Amino acid sequence: MSQPFLKVEGLKKVFPGVGGGADVTVFENIHFGFEKGEFVCIIGHSGCGKSTILNVLAGLDSATAGNVFMNGREVSGPSLDRGVVFQSHALMPWLTVIENVAFAVSSRWPDWSRGKVQTQCEKYLDLVGLGHALHKKPHQLSGGMKQRVGIARAFSIEPKMLLMDEPFGALDALTRGVIQDELVRICSATQQTVFMITHDVDEAILLADKIVLMSNGPEAKIAEIVENPLARPRLRSIIHHEPDFYPLRNHLVDFLVTRSKRIAEGHLPEGYDPMHPPLVRPTAPAESPMAEVG
Ligand SMILES: Nc1ncnc2c1ncn2[C@@H]1O[C@H](COP(=O)(O)OP(=O)(O)OP(=O)(O)O)[C@@H](O)[C@H]1O
């Protein structure tokens, strides 16, 4: 059988106890995989280990046990094959918008001419609607604009995988909606593979092909992998009229409110196998045939 594009095998993370306290196993026995071009969101309560997993996938942190493979090669450190977007924008304040992006592009392709680097930067800054702000410095930008620069920078290096840690968490709801729509558009144009942490169920429904559900920590588990049944293109303005929208939303909310805690207390679904977490696809019950009238 062919291997998935990204394969996570038996990941475990233990942090040493503070002040002589016992070590903490944040998560263990984490197995999942996904394919090229998929948009995967991970959801779980605060502290279950989502950022730690993302940092291990990025090669910025190492696991206590287990392995991550991307495209068949083990991830063992940071690489320009993986772009990362954090909640804080991490822009270099002394560089302009285009210089911030150009820094990443020239690191990725050191032999490119200045003109080619500039064209690449402008392409992705245009895609996020910042074509008019190329020469501004970060302090002249709103939070939403800074986050757009971070997204353009991550896309501009055309990474094999884009990792995003709550990229819209600090934005107001209106700005978040606009940038989510831009992200949907860019991802469908580029077929970018994305792994993203979010706390927002509606964001996951709008963006994701698959939603990984993590139970509460410590010793958090992948409780389930949920397949999003909603067809693309998805439009924020009408998505909630889709028959499968509320079955999916209710399933996710029910997990966060009730099941994530129950699983942490040891109530695992019958036959649960961490190497093959259940794959579920919540949909509306099939309509019963219309009763004949007359
Ligand atoms: N460097 C560290 N040393 C010790 N403990 C750590 C360290 N980094 C994270 N932790 C602990 O590991 C657990 C998981 O942290 P992590 O940030 O991965 O969780 P998370 O699910 O991303 O949380 P949130 O949703 O709040 O961002 C937390 O209990 C955290 O306190």
Automatic annotation (TrEMBL):
It comes from the Bacteria. Belongs to the ABC transporter superfamily. Residues 268-294 are annotated as: Disordered. It comes from Halothiobacillus diazotrophicus. The keyword Ribonucleoprotein does not apply. NCBIfam families: ntrCD (TIGR01184). InterPro entries: AAA+_ATPase (IPR003593), ABC_transporter-like_ATP-bd (IPR003439), ABC_transporter-like_CS (IPR017871), ABC_transporter_ATP-bind (IPR050166), NO3_transporter_ATP-bd-like (IPR005890), P-loop_NTPase (IPR027417). Residues 6-238 form the ABC transporter domain. One of its GO terms (molecular function) is ATP hydrolysis activity. GO terms for cellular component: plasma membrane. It is found in: Cell membrane. This is Nitrate/sulfonate/bicarbonate ABC transporter ATP-binding protein. It is a peripheral membrane protein. Keywords: ATP-binding, Cell membrane, Membrane, Nucleotide-binding, Transport. PANTHER family: NITRATE ABC TRANSPORTER ATP-BINDING PROTEIN, TAURINE IMPORT ATP-BINDING PROTEIN-RELATED. Its main location: membrane.
